[in-house]
Write a structure and sequence with these properties.
306 residues; Thrombin, subunit H; mainly beta
């Protein structure tokens, strides 16, 4: 008798219509009302979310893309961070495209990269604020400064970080910037944590292999591999204005928030922050990271103030 995994939602077939669209293809209230705003009586999946009887097959890519929702990926907070800015028209199919070729030594590079970065990545746990939260972070200098996401620590409380060796350290909040969803913590130096090198100024390349490192679902020291899927993807992070983000297909799940996205040389290219999801249920292979250039600038400003 086949078993069913609870909590992941039911499979979506090709006839699924995004609840963010009306049957005519225009925007609709995702809570089932006409105003586009969640009210006290609104329930996700209301009348406006019902699929039409016979949509045209060519419209499915556009309907699916427009309905994606961007969700912050700290465990325990569950807040919706914004919406993905999708194209109005589906991308043209590429006929006869050759299969992707993995560069020689790419797998070995990722193995070495994982070995280099794990000693500088921590699990971030916040307690004592009614409802706890958890995420990830990474050391950026030898003074004990740790970068994470603002939405991981925004509720306040006692903050602890746990290193790869299992050692628990008390952290102090230096500063946070809700607009960019960046926060900086500090732990006592000389704790065995190793600062991670930041990628040189300039963007990573589309197709470049990357690793997402952190503590998804509380599983510290987890590494997932993928590629850079797109650059300058406009998304709304932390409830602020839209900002360009690095898109990746490396698996990012609740608890990965604030962890590093690193390249094959073990250099940080972004701060993992959010995932796109159709139901808020978990990773579907579309994640977003704050580019490290911007994250580092914000972090240095917070450190200078703190």
């Amino acid at each position: 008798m086949p078993s069913t995994i609870a909590g992941l939602g039911e499979p979506r077939g090709p006839r699924f219509v995004s609840p963010a669209l009306t049957p005519e293809g225009g925007p609709a209230d995702p809570y089932g009302g006409p105003d586009g705003i969640a009210g006290p009586d609104d329930v996700p999946g209301g009348p406006a979310a019902q699929p039409p009887d016979s949509p045209g097959p060519a419209r499915w890519p556009r309907l699916l893309l427009t309905g994606l929702t961007l969700v912050a990926v700290s465990a325990g907070t569950g807040g919706v961070a914004g919406h993905l800015a999708a194209r109005d028209d589906p991308p043209e199919a590429v006929a006869g495209a050759p299969p992707a070729v993995v560069p020689p030594g790419a797998a070995g590079d990722l193995v070495a990269a994982a070995d280099r970065v794990l000693a500088g990545v921590v699990s971030v746990q916040v307690s004592g604020s009614g409802r706890g939260a958890s995420g990830s972070g990474f050391l950026i200098d030898d003074r004990g400064h740790v970068v994470t996401n603002n939405h991981v620590v925004a509720r306040g409380g006692t903050i602890n970080v746990i290193g790869q060796d299992g050692r628990r350290l008390t952290a102090r909040l230096i500063g946070r910037d809700p607009g960019t969803d960046i926060a900086v913590l500090r732990v006592d130096p000389g704790n065995g944590l190793r600062p991670l090198p930041l990628a040189a100024s300039g963007q990573p390349r589309v197709g470049e292999p990357v690793l997402a490192v952190g503590s998804p679902l509380g599983l510290s020291g987890t590494v997932t591999a993928g590629i850079v899927s797109a650059l300058d993807r406009p998304v709304r992070l932390g409830g602020g204005a839209r900002q360009p983000a690095v898109q990746t297909d490396a698996s990012i799940n609740p608890g990965n928030s604030g962890g590093p996205l690193v390249n094959g040389q073990g250099e940080v290219v972004g701060v993992n922050t959010a995932i796109a999801t159709l139901e808020g249920g978990g990773n579907i292979g579309i994640g977003f990271a704050i580019p490290i250039d911007r994250a580092a600038q914000v972090a240095q400003r917070l450190i200078a103030r703190g």
